[in-house]
Predict the structure.
Amino acid sequence: MKHMNEKWWKNAVVYQIYPRSFKDSNGDGIGDLEGIYEKLDYLAELGIDVIWMSPVYKSPNDDNGYDISDYQDIMDDFGTMDDFDRVLKKAHSLNIKIMMDLVVNHTSDEHKWFIESKKSEDNPYHDYYMWADPDKNGNPPNRWESCFSGSAWEYVESVGQFYLHSFSRKQPDLNWDNPKVREEVFKMMTWWCDKGIDGFRMDVISMISKYPGLPDGPENGNGYTGNTSCDGPNIHKYLREMNEKVLSKYRLITVGECPGVNAEQAKKYANIDGSELDMIFQFEHVSGSALKPCHHGKWDGEAMTMPELRANFTKWQKDLEGCAWNSLFLSNHDQPRCVSRFGNDSEQYRELSAKMLATMTHFQKGTPYVYQGEELGMTNIYFDKLEDYRDIESINYFEEFTESGLMTPEHMMKCLMLRSRDNARTPMQWDDSKQAGFTEGEPWIKVNPNYKKINAAQQLEDPDSVFHYYQKLIRLRKEKDIIVYGEFEPLYREDEQIFAYTRKGDQEKLLTVCNFSDKNAEVEVPEEFKGAECLITNLGRKEFDGKIILNPYEAFVLYYKHQVTEK
């Protein structure tokens, strides 16, 4: 069956690797490219189609590689360009594509462009970055806050100006209004495409266009909310130029990380006319519940309730139908582990809720993204000492909130346990040997102590494991076009426990039912699915007709195909 606007990436499942924590090959405690090479067969067995690799470029590593000093070289920690080429070649031999992490809102302050930029206002590279004069009192030009806490401006005495850094002070923002910057970025992207990579995940790409005059945003807003730096006036002009000069010339997958972008705006970024990007990452479903007061950004925010989550997914599914393509994710390197956040990481319910969350996500319309370890049901780590954290955002906010008296150290530690990015960055749990089989040395960040119970080796041997459940989900996507293209329709919109929806094609229908709670739940299966085939279930249920009582975190998917009789 052929579909309008059919693209290879719509059928794909993407797997994100955080290289520092994936697999260490040389015993230095840091994951590397050789480690990725060693585990490509594992990913082929899982069945994924694309690897999204978090940055491996040359970097001083202030923000774990998202501060790039050379876009066309490899960080020493990870290996060499020859190592990268080996990974690329082997991945392609296994029919796995490689998507690079493109970080071009900012560079490292150790990039040669910035080193030149801060020498003088007359330097040809000065205008590669966002510089501004102090106000009449010698203060920063506005009250913009960094996403990593504190002012977004840093003074440089040699030029008598402040430069903008939406993140760490070692991550100066590029000036995309300068055509030379855009030319340099497009040249670099072309270089990687010619090398043979298959796409780009674009870091905070919605922030590359700043508002003229650098106006103040709302008080107490951080870089995402208060800088008026998301979805700026020239963003679509610059993305269309990128598409015209680079993206359109290759068979790529592109996804833009777009904080601050709503469903209506997303239609422009990921328009089906293909003039900009293929899809975006939006963050409404991971931004916290609107029902609970949130005074300190993400740090005291609670996860969305199931009704809120259902409403959010439904909005994005319905609003983008026929207009743009969704990305589907619950986890990544910046988010807590999804089982701990949306499911239940107790011994009793961890596996069940991991499978339920996967079911809920993978049968929606869009391209699914699996973050490393998600296919094992890995959980948050719950560090109880600040010195165990490595994440610059977590450390900065701990210091700011405790020194100002906004939070006690004890309370802030609890917030970090739930929300810190390091929850997703602990080493991949390969087996039950020392350091979870990640390294023979001392890991750069501690291994989750539950690795004895949660690891790949054990799950590969268990046909009922979370790994094999993900494997089946991915295989089903390749077998049933309706999973990719069927139209989404929510059910039980008011139910407090049940997340259910249908997917409809010309002659096929899917029903997905998930109990999002640790209590039994009653559901009535629609009459049209009487006698339908069960594609997958996390509890082995055999009967699906009429009213049924779902067990805690139970999920199943039914499939019905209308038989057309020839006259």
The CA atoms of residues 104 and 203 lie 7 Å apart. The first strand starts at residue 14 and ends at 17.
